[in-house]
Amino acid sequence: MSPSLETFSNCFQGLLPAQLFTCSLDGVPNAAYLSHVEYVDAEHVALSFQFFNKSRRNIAENPRALVNVIDPDTGQGWSLQLLYERSEISGALFDRMALRIEAIASYCGLKGVFKLRAADVYRVLSIAPLAEECGSPRGGVSQHAAGLDPVFTVRALQDLSNRINEADSLESLVDSILAGLEESFGFRNTMILVPSEQEGVLVTIASRGYPENGVGAEVRTGEGIVGMVAEARKPIRISGLMRGMLYALAMSKAANLPETTLRQRVPLPGLPNPESQLGVPLLVRGELVGVLCLESEIPYRFHEEDKKSIELLGSYLAIAIQNMQLQERAGDVGDPAAPERTPVANPPLSSEPGSTATPREVTYYATDETILVDGEYLIRGLPANVLWRLLNIRESTGREEFTNRELRLDKSLKLPEWKDNLESRLLLLRRRLEQKCPDIRIVPRARGRFALEARGRVRLTTQP
What we know:
Helix 8 (382-397) packs across helix 10. Helices cover 30% and strands 28% of the residues. The chain has three domains: 5-129, Roll (Pnp Oxidase, Chain A); 154-330, Beta-Lactamase, CATH 3.30.450.40; 360-463, Arc Repressor Mutant, subunit A. The strands form four sheets. A seven-stranded antiparallel sheet has the order 2-1-5-6-7-4-3. A six-stranded antiparallel sheet has the order 10-9-8-13-12-11, with helices on both faces. The protein contains ten helices and 20 strands. It has 464 residues and is an alpha+beta fold. It is elongated, with a radius of gyration of 26 Å.
């Protein structure tokens, strides 16, 4: 009796390449490697039709094929006898396979190069173990059983829920989410990105587990796993990421295609050798609130059940983030119903107006809406405009305390009337200053109120 196809989900993650064997009508065999075999249902799998023209010609003449897959948990190989039935060029199956291919290609800077031409659907006639493989029997110790993967227990979910409920600001909320994902679920390398004021761009507001926090790093829609998740509004899970990237790069060289690189002013945080990634859209009633990205150096780190659980969790996180943004906006100074927030305890910076130390040179480039400090990039867009406005008010009037409300009413900033996400922009600005220019900082004083503090002299210059 053949094993059930449903129990072979581990073999269909692309961690270890599969082998496809076909034969022409006149008996000439052909072998090719596959980066991915897709589970369709209890009787069918799908293979991607991209480059394998010889295999495709053989299938047109002789619709039978053999695919060998390997269980990444046990090392056991399995042989699937297949019968070609149809090709799909649209629909849920095609979209799912195309999204995975595009995500890996985009990660390599090759978005748009590798197009899925069809999802070829095969009926599985039989499944048999490969005798030459030395893996342990199916049912051996998996990564889940070894405790390498997080367990979505009620206790872990309750712990994360408590962290979210205790957060009193957007900053503490996103930090609590990432801390909870590590301490309760075991996800050590995570980041949260939110849409910026620029159409089609997401910006990093929090990360955990990386040497550089990457706050301010931008990703365009459609670029890399984060951009693909934002574009498709669907979760993407990639196992064996480095193998997929090497496969994509090998194909590009074979086709003499140019390799491109994405230049970013702030590098996106990431592991040097990621093997697994999981990107989840944070959606509220169809609106993209942000993207949560998790990655690991462990192959096959995120299982199918992890993807489903974190997708459900992502909906809860999206609601929490959006509610906090609305709450902070409602809590602007002037709203008598807004609860007070405990001021953050930060030691004051000494102004030292008579200091002879070299002043900080803050330059604003009007065309690009970009700020450089001592010649190094700090920030751009709306956060840059906000900082420039605050620095000019401080220089001309000496005032150091400001409110969110006055920023919203300041016509020069050109904030949108609705969904300006000012709080996330201030959070981004505050963290970029902490990282690149600690002599200047934004310190929360109360709900909707903050101070701009500077140590020593600050020289303001403008450029076209």
